[in-house]
Every structure is written in C-alpha cells, then in structure tokens.
Amino acid sequence: MPKRACNAEDYNWLVNTPASDGNFKAALERSSEATIKKAVEFVEGKEGEKTKELELRRRLRKFNTARVVPRADVDTSTALALMAEEKSVADTARMQVEERERSIANAYETAGIIKTLNFVGKVVTVTSLVQLDKVKKSKSYKGIGTWDEYCEYTGLDRHSIDQQLLSLNTFGQEFLETVTSFGVGYREMRRLRQLSNDGDITIVDNCVEIGGESIPLDADHKEDLQAALERVLDEKAEALEDAHATVKAKDRVLGSKDEVIKKQEKELRKLSRESASRDLPPAEDAFLQRMENTRISFDGYLMKADPDFVMNEFNDLGEVTPRMRAALISTLHYMKMQVLAAYDTAVTNYGDPTMNPEILDGFANWEKQQNS
To answer: Domain residue spans in the chain?
Structure first.
C-alpha cells in the first residue's frame, strides 16, 4: 500500500490546537503517519509543547507496531528505542515541572524574607533586588498572582521596585552595591540611568567610565566614584537650568514679538479708520494700506529667521548643525539682496529720498504717520 502524504488540514489542527482540544484528538486519530511525523518535527523541543509531542509520538508508535517486520530482533530493538525515547520525553517533562515548582517555592521564599525583614516603605537591598529580578523574569510570581499582586503580597510598591530593577539591569549588582553604599538615592539613580542612556556613563571590565575618567569599582575608589558622579550630575543639572533659562528667554522674545504684531495690527486698524475719514484718492489709499500690510508681513518673516530666536528654538530639539547655520545665513543673505535690489530699483525710478527734498518730505511724513 502506498504511503499517504501529509494532510495540510490535519497538520494545522495538530500544531495549532492544544493537546486537550477535541479537534486535536480527532485530527490525531485520522492523520497519516507522514502528517504526524511532520507535526512532531514542528513541536519537538518547543516550550509548553511536551504534552502534545508525547501524544504525537504515542500515535506514531501505533503505526510502527502495526507494520509487519520480518525479524524479531528488529522488533525488539525498535521497541527498546521507542521506550527510551518515551522515557526521555517523560523525564524532560518531569524536570520542567520540578523546576517550575522550585521557582514558585523560591518566589514564596523571597517574599517571606522581605516580609520578615520588614522592608515595607524602605529601600530594598541589592541582594533582595537580585532575587526579585529572578522572580519577575521567571514569572514564578504567578504562583501567587500577577506581578502587582506579588509586590502587594510582599508589602512593596510595584512602581518603586520596577524602577530599582531597571537600575539593577542597567548597571549590574556590583555597581549598584557600590553607589548605594554612599547614599545614592532613588532620584539620583534615575538620573544616572539617563546618563547611561546618553552614553555619559559606561561600565567596562569592572570600571566606570564617566566624564572621560575610568574609575575601578572597588572600596578603595568609592570616594573617586562619588565625586565623579556628583560632578556629572551637577553639570547636567546646570545644563538643564540653562535650557530652562533659554526656554524662558525664548518665551519672552515670543511675547515681545507678539506685542509688536498686536501693536502693528492696532495701527493698521487705526489707519483703516483714518483713511475712511481722509479725503484720499482711492488708489493712494489702497497703496498706503498695501505698504503697511507689507511691513507687518515682513516683520512676520523676520521672526521666522531671527538668529537668536530660531537657533534657540531648534537647539532645544538637538544640536545646531553647520548645515542649519549655513541655511540661516543663506536665507538672510537672500532676503538682504532681494530688498537691496528692490530698494535700488525704487531709488532709480522714483528718486533718492536723501537727495530729493520733495521725496524726503514725503518720506518724513510717512515715518511720522507710522509713529503717531
């Protein structure tokens, strides 16, 4: 009889449903040997799939025993091999259960130690943090409940413990024990983690590289490490204060520019009202209003390219690059050249106000009108 090929539908039921599911059992009964072998290859050695693997192998053995083998010694060796394989799978499953039980027992033991030593409301020792880290990573706390419930059971604040575990996983046990010995607190550790993320602190070969200095992690260099940490933290604090001062200065600049714009808008409304009461030709009135609108718009464009304001604004988002500086200078130079060209054309066509008394009087009246 020819061998039946792997059936895709049965294979999907075998690998994608739990061993306790009725669909799995039904697929197992009707599947061909090829289908079951392929399913075994898929689940073999995967975590949480030992029960399914055992069921699949048992089904395979039925195919083997049903097959006619001419030699008795082959039957015996095959049976022994299958028995050894089944024993290996069973031993592996038993060891996993035992390891799981040990992890849960360790979780209870850790919780008991913390409760007994009355760590509630206090900083947990580094040794206890190491144990808690093992409990969390192994998920053995599920023997009690969720991670939140486990922390509550031990009398610990979950948020505080998670922050301290972040420090443990960032710096390691030895560094944490060293810095806590001279009183580095919760807030300082959070700032140190930020320094580590920024690359200001690195730990290499039991040495801390900080501020261009390499300091060994041992009792003889505690004072050196403490001084270096305080220096870097102070420098960062000063930089943060400078950044806040820059933001405040920027806000003041924005405020003053807003005041200028509001003042110009007020003057524009005033001019509009005055033009209605003045006996001006329509073309002249429209032209004067256009020039005033142009001045207001020009001030707005200058705000976007103000050297102090725009650089302070983008410096808060990151370092000002040479390309950014070049773009600013190029833009201002372009504006300058365009304005100068327009000014020269106007002087050529309509006269220089500094040389023509009539134009000078008109220019003075225009300036006086803007400042009134």
So the answer is: 8-99, 239-371
